[in-house]
Hints:
30% of the residues lie in helices and 29% in strands. By secondary structure, it is an alpha/beta fold. The chain folds into 2 domains: 9-31 and 298-432, Lyase, Ornithine Decarboxylase, Chain A, domain 1 (Beta Barrel); 38-294, TIM Barrel (Alpha-Beta Barrel). Strands 4, 17, 18, 19, 20, 21, 22, 23 and 24 form a 9-stranded mixed beta sheet that branches. Strands 5-6-7-8-9-13-15-16 form an 8-stranded parallel β-barrel, surrounded by 6 helices. It has a 3-stranded antiparallel beta sheet with strand order 1-2-3. Helix 5 crosses helix 6 (132-145), helix 7 (184-193) packs across helix 8 (215-235) and helix 8 packs parallel to helix 9 (261-279).
Amino acid sequence: xxxxxxxxxxxxxxxxxxxxxxxxxxxxxxxxxxxxxxxxxxxxxxxxxxxxxxxxxxxxxxxxxxxxxxxxxxxxxxxxxxxxxxxxxxxxxxxxxxxxxxxxxxxxxxxxxxxxxxxxxxxxxxxxxxxxxxxxxxxxxxxxxxxxxxxxxxxxxxxxxxxxxxxxxxxxxxxxxxxxxxxxxxxxxxxxxxxxxxxxxxxxxxxxxxxxxxxxxxxxxxxxxxxxxxxxxxxxxxxxxxxxxxxxxxxxxxxxxxxxxxxxxxxxxxxxxxxxxxxxxxxxxxxxxxxxxxxxxxxxxxxxxxxxxxxxxxxxxxxxxxxxxxxxxxxxxxxxxxxxxxxxxxxxxxxxxxxxxxxxxxxxxxxxxxxxxxxxxxxxxxxxxxxxxxxxxxxxxxxxxxxxxxxxxxxxxxxxxxxxxxxxxxxxxxxxxxxxx
Length: 437
C-alpha cells in the first residue's frame, strides 16, 4: 500500500509535518492552509534529477504549472532541475527565483508576442513551437533581438496516457502540438530550418498525466523516433533532443501504485535507446518535465470543520456531510476531474467507529466536494481539523476567488519550523481590485 502522506508526516496526539504540529500551524496561519514539507519536495526533485540523468537526460525540468512560487522554484533548481514555464507570469516568477535562462523552457499553445519577447530577452534554453503561426512570431522576435533562438516542435503523436492505460487516437483532437499523422509536424520542421533566426534542436512530446508505467512512452517514442528519422533523411537535420514531457503519477489513495522513479526512468531510457537503434538514429539527449510527481506528495491541506450533517440515503444508509472552511476555490480538482483524495482527522486522536463521510466545501455549488467518499471517526465535530493528503500540485496553482473567498496561505515546514511562501489573501486585497467604488 502506498503512503500518501509526506515523508515528514507523523501521527501521534495530532498530525505533525516536519516536526510542526498541525494545530500550531492552524493557530498561526489560519485555515484553509496549504502546507509543504520542504525536505520531501527536495528529496523528490533530487531523485528525479539523479534517476533521469542516469537514464540519459541532459535536462530535467520542474513543471511550474503544478505549483509556482519563488521558494519552490529555488528548491528544485538547488536540487539540479531546470524549470518549464507556460506563461509570462510563470517566467517572471522563475526569473525572480534566480533561475538562469539556459535552464528554462517556454511552453504554451498561444504565446503572446510579449511573452515570446520576454523569453528571448531572458535567454531561455528552448521555446516550444506549438503552431505554424508561432514559427513566424518567434522567428520575427528573435530576428529583432538579433539572436538565434533554439526551439523544439511540440508534436501530437496520437498517444494519450493516463494512470496505467493508454490509447491511440485517430484524429489527435486537442489544442496542443502539431500532428505527426497529418504531416504538420514535418512541415513545421521544413519551415523552421529555413529561418536564420531559429535553430531546430528537437521534438517535444507529452502524452498525459498520472501515468503509472512506461507503456505509453514506448508507443509515443516509436512515433517520435520515426518522425526524427524522416526529418534527418529529408532535411539533413540530426535532432539533438527529445523532450518526453512529464505526467509521472503519484499516489492519492493507498491502493495507487505508481512506478518507482528510478525504474520508470530506466525503462524510458531503454525504450528510446532501442527505438533509435532499430531506426538507425543517433541517440539524442533526453529531457523530461515532472511536476506533480515532485510537489504533489509534499503537500497537505488543513481545513477546520464547520458543520456535520447526517443524510439518510434512499437505501437507508447514512452519509455524513462534513463541511469545511474551504472547498472548490482551493481545490477544484474533485469537481473538475472527479479526483480522489485521502482525508484524515488531524487535530486529535479518536477511538470512535468510522463512518461514511463526504467532505464538502462552503461554496454555493452542489458540486463543491473536496473528498467524495471517505471514512472518518464517527465523533467528527465542528472545530476539528482535517487534513487532505497529496495536495501540493494543482491546488494552489488552480485556486480561485469564487464566492469572493480569499485564497489560502502556503507555508513550508522544515526541521520544526514553519515559514510563509505565499501569504493568505484578504477581503481587502480583493476589494482593492474592484474599481467600481
